[in-house]
Every structure is written in structure tokens, then in C-alpha cells.
Amino acid sequence: METFVIRGGRRLEGTVTIDGAKNAILPILAACLLTDKEIVIGAVPELRDVYTIAEVLESLGVRVRTDLPGSLTVQADDVDRYAAPHDLVRRMRASFLVMGPLLTRFGQARIPLPGGCAIGSRPIDLHLKGFEAMGATVAVEQGYISATSRGRLHGNRIYLDIPSVGATENLMMAAVLAEGVTVIENAAEEPEVVDLANFLGSMGAQVHGAGTRVVRIDGVDQLGGTRYVAIPDRIEAGTFMVAAAISQGDVVVSNVIIDHLKPVVAKLREMGVEITEDSTSVRVTATGRPYPVDVKTLPYPGFPTDMQAQVMALLTVSSGTSVVTETVFENRFMHVDELCRMGAHIGVEGRSAIVRGVSVLSGAPVIATDLRAGAALVLAGLAAVGETELNGIQHIDRGYVHFERKLAGLGADIVRRQDALRGVAE
Ligand code: EPZ
Asked: What is the mean pLDDT of the chain?
């Protein structure tokens, strides 16, 4: 059992470099199934979720090699299995993104139901309705989803009830090799969706309008190989921006795309945090407690749900009362109880959390329930008086590369501790 031990009170200073975006690289790796040609992905972050999707690809017969540090060479020229392993899909629900590529290239796919997670039930009905609209036969049996299509999928006009990121990505990938034109309406506009569209375009796909609510895909007969580098991770960047703010520090966050950070920059400025923008970096400076603000998470370009827990941690030490409303997931307040153990004053009313700022948090033993909740508790530990011991850091390793090393590089007092016995003793 590994834990982080954080001693708060240090001002963070210096420069931190952001890695490739987890939520861009996962669908991009799934999309490598769409061709038998070689693909090289650069600047791949060393994340547990990246290793998991690589294992899923290898379980299908895809060759995945690490030729150069930080890059992956992928070739799906010998795929002979179309069923993703149960344990891998349960470990990471994003494995479900292989369904669209398998179905459109091989006419079959069998994937375990991804199931829910700490933040919600995470249904996939929009994915399945879209596949059926394109001519697939979908059956759910014994905890598996089987999809088959006699001949090629055909294009169709698909309206998503919710601008789902995963459904937009899965259906976009299914459409690039389908017969004819597919139009996805009410599509997700996230930068990671746009990056996937650009990756598919570099393989020869015809995807138009990604980043808007209407995406049109003209199906082609086959796709070629490519070399590609994904966008930097806007959520990792936002997390370090909050780390600078909560520690009243002065940090340069480099390797960012400013445009992707707009909702986070706007909200932090509203809280009194000073942010100066360069072409590929932002400098974040804070002195004193942040102002209270209201936050409502929305699909992009609204305030990102993946930054909700982190900004709530900052609001716990604001000079007033804030309302944080989570509209994307139904259960994304698991970090509230843990923040309260550190002295925060937060009350949850349905989809909203009322955060009454306190002047100081106190270190405490806390548990990470999911990736972003874990990050938020680390941020709170940076500001807390005393020692915070965070369990469950395997969640953090899914989405942050060397999180504690990067924070320590900015002056934080944080170490990763191996507590083999503790796990047994308790
Ligand atoms: C992606 O998840 C991200 N994961 C999530 O990041 C992110 O929080 C989420 O998009 C929203 O931005 C990856 O990209 C790997 P959705 P996804 O489909 O695609 C409902 C992180 O921390 N819905 O946009 O699963 C769903 O229940 C992770 O990095 C349906 O009802 O999110 C949710 O309430 C967490 N039916 C809402 O839509 C469906 O068929 C948005 O989900 C699909 C989704």
C-alpha cells in the first residue's frame, strides 16, 4: 500500500512542465486499431491508464513497442481477437473505446460492460444507440456487450441526448470506415475530441467540424499509418495552477495550450489569483486567501468537471461562502467528506456543495476515492497546517505523471511512502 505524506505550509515556486493529455491519448491509442499500418505516438505520458489501454490492444493481437523513451509504436496488422479482457475493462472503463474501431474494421466486438465507478453509474447507452444507428446488431449478455455488423457499417445522422465525450469519440471512430456520411449532432466539443479528430485526419480520415456541436464524417475505405503527438493535459495544468494558488506561490506551468485553459483561468482570476499568459505557459501568482466564487461544471467550453474537486479544495480556504454545482456526473462529491476531515466546512445539497471558507485547514489521514478527488486532497494538504497522509494514491497514478516529484520540484514537502505493513495491520 503506498501513501503520500504531505507537510503543508510551503509556498510553491518555480516551473513545472505538463505531460501529454491522458484523455486524448487513450482514444488515440484505441484508434490505432483502425489500420494495419504502423503508427508512432510521441510524448506519451507514463500513466497507469496508458499501460492499461496498451495491454488491451496487445490482448487483441496488436503490437505495441516502446522504441524511444516516451513514445509508442503501434501496429494492428495481426488482430485476431475481438473481445477485450474483463479484468482490463473493469480496471479502466475507457477501454470501451476499442468498440468503435473493432466494429467498423472487423465487423465484430465483444466488450465487458464497463460498469460504474466512484463518480457515477457511467452508462454507455448513447454509444450503443449510435452503433445500432450505423447498422450494428448489439446484444448485452452475461455482462458483455456483443456488437456485430454484416458488411460495413453505414453512415447515419445521430443525435446525442448528452454531449458525451466517449460516445462522440467511439462513434467518430466507427464512422471513419463506414459506408457514406455520418453526422453526430450535439457532439462533445472537448479539446481531446478535436485531438482525436486531428489524429484520424492524419491517418487519412475525413472528419469535419470536431470542436463544434455538429461533426460530419465521410467514410473512407482504409486508413494509413501516421506519426502523432497528442495535446498537453489541460487538467494536469489546471491542477498545478490550483497548487500554486492554494500555496500562495508563484509558479510557471509550461507546455500548455492557453485556449484549453480559458474556463479555469477565468475562474481563478475571479478568485483573485494573478495569471499571466505566455504563448505556451501560464504564470500563476497568489497572495492571501482566494475570494469565494460559485462554480458550475458543464461540458466544454464550460468549467470542466475534472477540475471541480481541485477548485473546491481551493475554495475551502476562501474568504467567504461558495456554491459548487456538479452537473455532469451524479456522484462527484466523494472528496467532500475527506476535505471536511481536514477542517473544511462543506455541506452537500443534491448536486450542489456549499463551501464556507476557513482560514486554515489541518493535516489529517485521508483517502483518495478517485483520480481527481485524490489530487484535490493533495492540494488541500499543501495548504494545511501539519501532516496529511493520503491513502489510495493508485488513483492518482492513473492520471498524473510523477505527481509528488513535480510538486516537490516546486518546493512542496511531499513524499511517497511504502506502507506494506499498514495495509495488513488495519
Ligand atoms: C470522459 O469520460 C473523461 N474520460 C472523463 O475524465 C471526463 O470527466 C468526462 O469525459 C467528462 O468530461 C476520458 O476521456 C477517458 P461522458 P466519459 O460520456 O466519456 C453520461 C478523468 O478524471 N453518459 O462525457 O465517460 C455520463 O453518465 C475522467 O480524467 C450517458 O448517460 O464521460 C455522464 O453523466 C473522469 N450515456 C455524462 O454523460 C452514455 O452513453 C458525461 O459523460 C455516455 C455518457
From this structure: 96
